[in-house]
Amino acid sequence: MPIFYVSVLHLGTVEALALSFAAFIVSGVLGSFNYYRHRLLNLKLASILSIGSFLASFLGVKANLLIPENLMRIILYCVVLLSGIMILFRKDTAKVQRKTPGNATLISIGFVTGFICAVTGAGGPIIVLPILIMLGIPAHEAVAISLFNSIFIGIPSATGYIMNSDLKIIGAIIPVALVAHGVGVYIGSKNGQRLNQKILKQAVAIFSILIAVFKLVTG
What we know:
The protein is mostly helical. It has helices spanning 2-7, 13-37, 43-63, 69-89, 103-120, 124-134, 139-163, 167-170, 173-192, 197-218. Helices cover 79% and strands 0% of the residues.
């Protein structure tokens, strides 16, 4: 999403990140609410994961000015690529007893992914979703958790980047961007649970691999 704002609207990087994370908050609230209504959101698991993400996002905003952006993007897409490959070739665990990741593991995952997202401007679900599926979380539940988690990545990140943005530039864009983004996410999350879980998991894996390879090749 930051790439769209920079390349199409010709905004500065900080302004693009501010808009992106504000949109992630909206998508997180609307999307996770819809999944919660359909009993697909594991609120306890999502909350524990989000503890690490929330704390790390503050550090991610500060690190954005210190760590070379190109290096962080390479790390991001390598993680996405690896996760997508592991999901695609992971054996079906539907008949195997599910093992929920421990609290320490969830907080650690949340911390690392939250930091990377805050630095690069990547949406939380791009990283968190394939990792959760890889750990054995059902695809629909993983989508719900990643949307919920994006709220706690978005709040500190959006706040930090907005404070360093030119409000005269993004003031008129924010309402339009948030409304359009919110409508799309609401419709998508409302109908997402109807998709076959196996197809959804394969789609996530293939998309993750394609986007990671494309970004690594094109830079």
